[in-house]
Amino acid sequence: MIGLYPEMGRDYYYLIPPLFPDIRMRVGGDNILHITAPNAGEGWIHIQSATLNGIPLDRAFIHHNELVGGGTLELVLSQEPKTSI
User: Fold this and answer.
1) What is the mean pLDDT of each run of 10 residues along the chain (85 residues)?
2) Model-level pTM?
3) Secondary structure (H, E, C), 11-61
């Protein structure tokens, strides 16, 4: 529901479309992870792009150690799949 799907026994999470446009959660002690997806909601099921602290992610997953320091994970969603790379 928050845009991260863990794989059992692995140190990463798959990026999936969240149900909420703005999520803040405490991670790694007092650090805050802010997940933003302005278009989140019914029908917005495709991730067009993702950035972590403004740096584009070129993969569909994120490692645990990238999240525990906090920061902002921004997901750009659409209703249609991405047609070009």
Assistant:
1) 94 96 93 96 93 96 95 96 73
2) 0.90
3) CEEEECCCCCCEEEEEECCCEEEEEECCCCCCCCCEEEEEEECCEECCCCE
